[in-house]
Write a structure and sequence with these properties.
Elements (H helix, E strand, L loop, with lengths): L24 H7 L1 H7 L6 H14 L1 H4 L3 H14 L10 E11 L5 E11 L1 H11 L2 E10 L3 E5 L5 E5 L8 E10 L4 E7 H11 L6 H4 L1 H14 L6 H7 L8 H6 L9 H5 L11 E2 L6 E2 L1
Helix pairs in contact: 1-3, 2-3, 2-5, 6-10
Length: 288
Amino acid sequence: MANNSVKVGEKVNVPAPQQAPQMSMKDWINKSQKAIAKALPSTITPERFTRMATTAVTMNPDLGKCTPSSFIGAMLQAAALGLEPNTPLGQAYLIPYNRSVKTPDGRWIKVPEAQFQIGYRGLIELAHRSGEFKSIEAHVVYENDEFDYELGLEPKLRHKPAMSNRGEIVWVYAVYKLQSGGYGFEVMSKDDIDEHRKKYSKARTSPWDTAWEGMAKKTVIKQALKYAPLKSEFVKAMNNEDVTLNFKEELADTEDFVMPDEESRYAEEAVDVDEVITVDAETGEIKE
């Protein structure tokens, strides 16, 4: 029989308590399948959407470093709108960025978070779903194209693309026609687009870096739609990217698990305050 007695004062090696392994972002995606299924329209299956979200994390490892609540919240926003995130369709994007926050003890820490952003094709998709639009489109104008527009009481817009050697980009415009017969358009110069990007795009990685034309079209479409007589349902859907979903509330009715303590998880990562990032309430994009 083994003798398990220990003498008084004798040092004993006590195994350290084992901590549960930290869940990866892919684990959180799988854990959230019921909430995803609840948010999705019938046009996209939960399995397909889950694969898209998992692929997004695989293709961009920075997304896996974001707080689970911000990533799943952004993912559920895409699901609620029925838009495919981070796919070649360009309907929507899940974008990682650092947000500087102040802790209760007065220190600044940098917290990696995910932001949901609609692409221009996503805006067009939402517009067609609303049933209010006969057509909506955006185009890029190059320096050798024939292009002319007028504003005023009788606005006019004419664009004839050059057959070859179109040159550099100079304008971007969006035009829409309503089922009721009304129409409208908006024109922005390349310089105006770039100024807009500098003002709002502060993320470390952004669709502006890989899909400038798509982001420029989205910008001018949103400007054009400001003048359209839209129903509240479409406006709410279009501005849904400005709203941060409460992940804990979304999952309260579907799954019973506890979110990680994200404040303590990142509390030891003190940083210099180089930029504090917030989301513009009107455009849904990042601003200083």
